[in-house]
Design a protein that fits this description.
Layout lengths: L1 H6 L11 E10 L2 E11 L4 E5 L6 H8 L7 E6 L2 E2 L2 E4 L2 E4 L2 H8 L2 E4 L11 H11 L5 H14 L15 H13 L5 E5 L7 H16 L3 E5 L3 H7 L2 E6 L2 E6 L1 H6 L4 H10 L1
This protein binds adenosine-5'-triphosphate and magnesium ion (MG).
Length: about 270
């Protein structure tokens, strides 16, 4: 017994923060897109990420989700290095299979819904659980129905994306991501391609998801959502975190000129 507890690493006693970025740097050629990003998202927290076009918001999400590789710094999701494994204090590139396992625990929702057009809403949702997780078809269908209900689309199971509104398609996309039982959800401007009257229904689903305890990073210009739902707001510009804090405080009283200038445009 004593020996067993002694062998456990210290961190295992306390669940690690969900996302930890330390001095993360990302370059495309000579263009340094992320300069020195350090931030933490705790379990169950919602972080809103805002900033002007080109500031590196999508790149940061793509690093978390293994769609890009960082050039320097450390990035951990749920206590594990993204894309690397550590042995004897050294980092080694992860095998593609291990990367795939890590990636499937992270759900991503994009501005464009990227649903498969030739599949119904339900088929879109069951595809990955069956193909990637080998979930039995019956089980996947039952779960997809629950998820469709949760996003308010129980009656649209058999509808094809082309017959759904943008807001409905985005809600299917959220259900599809949730079908993989992610521990972290990343949203990259999930409402910015929607007609204004459809934004609310998607934000409502995201609010409910946040209330359920999901850890979320949301790139958005919906400051009402940030104010109401987020635990922290991060303002990025030119590849650095300019300002971060409680969204209500940052929005009411931004400390930096660049934050003020940006917020005056989106509020
Ligand atoms: N695959 C890539 N190859 C080269 N440059 C890239 C690549 N992806 C992004 N960039 C560059 O990185 C910078 C940051 O882009 P990113 O898409 O992360 O910004 P963003 O903050 O999400 O902007 P937006 O609000 O317009 O979505 C931009 O200058 C972009 O041109
Ligand atoms: Mg972007």
């Amino acid at each position: 017994m004593t020996q067993f507890t002694e062998q456990l690493p210290v961190q295992s006693e306390v669940a690690p923060d969900m996302v930890v970025a330390e001095r993360v740097m990302k370059q495309f050629g000579s263009n340094t897109v992320l300069k020195n990003i350090s931030l933490t998202v705790k379990r169950g927290e919602v972080m809103c990420l805002v900033g002007p076009s080109g500031s590196g918001k999508s790149t940061f999400l793509r690093l978390i989700n293994h769609l890009e590789k960082l050039n320097a710094g450390r990035l951990l999701v749920d206590g594990e290095f993204v894309g690397y494994r550590e042995r004897d204090g050294k980092l080694y590139e992860q095998k593609p299979r291990d990367a795939a396992v890590q990636r499937r625990e992270i759900g991503m929702v994009f501005q464009r819904f990227n649903l498969f057009p030739h599949m119904t809403a339900l088929e879109n949702i069951i595809e990955a659980p069956i193909r990637v997780k080998n979930q039995p078809r019956k089980e996947a269908i039952a779960r997809a129905k629950v998820l469709l209900e949760r996003v308010g689309l129980a009656e649209k199971a058999k509808a094809y994306p082309g017959h759904l509104s943008g807001g409905q398609q985005q809600r299917v996309a959220i259900a599809r991501a949730l079908a993989m039982d992610p521990k972290l959800m990343l949203f990259d401007e999930p409402t910015s391609a929607l007609d204004p009257e459809l934004v609310g229904e998607v934000l409502d689903v995201m609010k409910a998801l946040a209330k359920s305890g999901m850890t979320m990073i949301v790139v958005t210009h919906e400051m009402g959502f940030a104010r109401e739902v987020a635990d922290s707001l991060v303002f990025m510009d030119g590849g650095v975190v300019v300002e971060t804090g409680d969204p209500r405080e940052v929005l009411a009283n931004p400390q930096h000129e660049r934050t003020q200038a940006f917020l005056s445009k989106v509020l």
